[in-house]
Amino acid sequence: MAGMDAAQQTPLPVGYRVLANHDISHQLAQRPDIAAALGGTPAQWHVRDVADGNLNSVFLVEGPNGGVCVKQSLPWVRVAKDDWPLSVERAFFESAYMQRTEPFALGLAPRLLHFDASLRMIVMERLRPHTILRQALIAGVQHPLAARAVAEFAASTLFHTSDIANPFERKADDVALFCKNHALQRITVDLVFIDPYTHNTRNRYVSPHLNAWARALREDGALKSAVARHRNNYLSKPQALLHGDLHSGSVMVTQDDTRVIDGEFAWVGPIGFDTGNFIGNLLLSWFAKASHRTDAQKRDAYRDWIAQQVQDFWQHFHDRFLAHWQGWRGPSDGYPASHFDPDADTTELRALKAEYLEDVWADTLAFAAIEMVRRCIGFAQVADFSSIQDPALRARVQAPALALARDMLVNPHHYRTVQTLLRSLTRHDLLRPDSTLPHQDELSHA
Ligand code: SR1
Ligand code: MG
Q1: For position 345, what pLDDT does the model report?
Q2: How many Å apart are CA 53 and CA 37, to the nearest integer?
Q3: DSSP readout, 291-334?
Q4: Is 380 in the pocket of ligand 1 (CB under 6 A)?
Q5: Listed residue (145, 109, 68) closest to 262, CA to CA
Q6: pLDDT at 445
Q7: Cα within 13 Å of Cα(317), Cβ side
Q8: 125 near 68, Cβ under 8 Å?
Q9: Exposed, middle or buried by CB within 10 Å (0-12, 13-18, 19+), for 14?
Q10: Which atom of ligand 1 is nearest to the CA of 79?
Q11: What angle, 0 to 180 degrees and rounded to 10, lies between the N-to-C axes of helices 296-327 and 418-427?
Q12: Which ligand is nearest to the CA of 187?
């Protein structure tokens, strides 16, 4: 926890206090624009505590004319409270991310209405009747537009904050601002990249069922070398402004609307971290579905649909990123027009673009795998699995996900395209006719 302590040295802002349900209306009444949006009088506003994430307080406020969402950083990790103090700076970084990406978000994020610097409180558009994509996936509901919309969001925000679309000074400003997001980057570095490969009391894998797996991961030199490469990649490759936590719990959906929320982990890093996070979580959802034993036909159709979403997400991200590049006529220090006439579409520029996206795919694959490992072994488990009541069954569907993730990291040349990745799912499917519970021995034979 040494790194966590460092994150705590940030003092609380003057005027900061933890807001309770009964404080919220009073706070919002101070803002005439928000009061008008809610309508009526504060006494008529209905405040509901809806926090269900790991870190923050969240309230939904409804008035006669409309609603807003209020999110406050707590001086601790909400799900661990006194055991895990945490800097409240994250609300500042989330609001900064929302402001910086708003011109490129294409309406695919909630509108930021107000940021209160003392209370570290964000007031944003209330989304209704949206649900969290992860919950929809668990419930087996299809949202046909969601994966493409997240791809659209990722392609646009990542392209427009990269060196392809900026003078270096602009991107350096992003680096200078978001590199101070220490507390949440400490969480990512520890929880995503370090803890799952160590003995750590924060790890929460299903014991004893996955004990052998956890030990095998700790002892797997080839795997830890691959993770080290990508941990350093995450820390040393400031390619674009990342959302930093782009999993299915950070996406809210209806049948015709999709919004990306929760940019508090924003960081300038490798583009593949965002795309990999989203793909990794879709794949986890695919593995978790193997636990559904009641209606096999329906389950298999839904799993096929999830796999199709992985393909759609990557393909759409790839195509939209290239389309932004093709249309870009603004400043670029990465690929200046003085070297590459954007109107000429030369072989050289085409090759450079292909090379860039191949590199993003390689990173996507690795970060997807790292996300899959940490969600099965580390502190922050996902509801796709934790909603499986029987621990033995939960471990049984997590083990093949670990086997695939390990292979993606150690043998990336087997997965040069999204299609090869998806074809490999059947090889790692618990439900294949000859399947047995993958054992840690598979690690050394992979
Ligand atoms: C202690 S925070 C755990 C996780 O929750 C967030 O959503 C991030 O994914 C983080 O790693
Ligand atoms: Mg979150």
Answers
A1: 84
A2: 26
A3: G--S-HHHHHHHHHHHHHHHHHHHHHHHHHHHHHHHH--S--SS
A4: yes
A5: 109
A6: 36
A7: 28
A8: yes
A9: exposed
A10: 1
A11: 160
A12: 1
CB of 402 closer than 6 angstroms to any ligand 1 atom: no
40 Ramachandran zone, left/alpha/beta (phi>0; psi -120 to 50): left
Q: Which amino acid belongs to residue 170?
A: R
Q: Is the CB of 151 under 6 A from ligand 1?
A: no
pLDDT value for 8: 53
Distance 335 CA to ligand 2 centre (A): 34
Encoding tokens for residue 80?
């661990």
Q: Are 24 and 207 in contact (CB under 8 A)?
A: no
Q: Residue 432 region, left (φ>0) first, then alpha (ψ -120 to 50), else beta? A: beta
Helix (H) or strand (E) holding 134, with range, is: helix 133-139
Ligand 1 atom nearest to CA at 192 = 11
Residues present in the chain in total:
446
pLDDT of residue 434: 67
- How confident is the model at residue 440, as a pLDDT? 47
> What pLDDT is recorded for position 432?
74
User: Domains of the chain by range and CATH?
Assistant: 2-125 (3.30.200.20), 131-444 (3.90.1200.10)
Token match 């040295």: residue? 9
Mean pLDDT by 10-residue block, N- to C-terminus, for the chain (446 residues)? 46 96 96 98 97 94 98 96 93 98 98 98 97 97 98 99 98 98 98 98 97 97 98 98 98 98 98 99 97 90 98 98 97 96 92 98 98 98 97 96 97 98 91 61 41
- Within 10 angstroms of residue 341's Cβ, the number of other Cβ atoms is 10
